[in-house]
Amino acid sequence: MEELVGEDFYFVHFNRKPGVADAIMEENSSRFLRNLFRKNMLQLTSEPGMLMINLAEAAKPYGEPLMSNKELSVFISSFESSGFTGCINWYRNLDRNWHLMADLEPRINQPTLMIYGKRDQIPKSPNLKDFAPNLEVISLDCGHCIQQELPQETNQAILNWLRKQKT
Predict the structure, then answer these.
(1) Which three-class secondary structure string do you get for the chain?
(2) Rounded mean pLDDT of 74-82?
């Protein structure tokens, strides 16, 4: 993954220094999640691999909240109970998954819907149709956390797509 995304990407840091980000995020669960689930954030600059740790340690959140305090409390409560290691391990396991799936055809032949956020920092994949030929792409005017930013619009897009699949 380091060759693909570079040494300064946050999940490369997760692999290089196991346990470091986990501990800092767990120590600051509420602050981290409050700082993470925001919209209209300025591009955050940080040391290589430090984005998630910087979010956990930042005293002041940037941008606007994506959800109410009541909604956010569900996430905070869950992560205070489970910690962050489980979700971070998903990133740590990417290389292993790549090798386990090496002999599988990387293709989704079923009708597929992909909803992108137009303001997501992760760019659209230009060759996604190569892997999902029956793909429909919808772009909504939001960032990465599509369901939290535009829940009604997301649900409506999914329902409209499902209705088309029935015909």
Answers:
(1) CHHHHCCCCHHHHHHHCCCHHHHHHHHCHHHHHHHHCEECCCCCCCCCCCHHHHHHHCCCCCCEECCCHHHHHHHHHHHHHHCCHHHHHHHHCHHHHHHHCCCCCCCCCCCEEEEEECCCCCCCCCCHHHHCCCEEEEEECCCCCHHHHCHHHHHHHHHHHHHHHHC
(2) 96
